[in-house]
Structure prediction request, 137 residues.
Amino acid sequence: MVPLGSARESTGFFETITEINSAEGRHVFSYRASLRVQELSDAGRSSLHPHPRFLKLRRNRALYPQRKEQINDWYLEARMIANQHQESRWAYPRKGLAKGRLPDIDPDFWKNQKEPKFPALPGVSLLDFTSPEGILM
Prediction:
């Protein structure tokens, strides 16, 4: 999917990332990937898989609600910054090209392009090592 350039817009790709991380016990990563699946689905995106119904994998539910809330907040902020960055990645070269500068021959073309500062991931919590379903009384 990556060589085809479609992975970042494919629900199938992020469904797979969700499943792999869930199976490996990396619940925070699994949950973050599932947020991207939901975002893409809401935007009308789908998988390139010829039979997408087979990609409806289990969603990670092994996180406490308060942990999900922390990750949701982080995700919304990170996606906003990523969207702004994507817009600037197209606007910046257009400005240079309009001035007759070419990135292939101008070694300073990208010199003033600024990379955004993304929010820090929520720190590791003791809640990450247990799950609501796994606690026995």
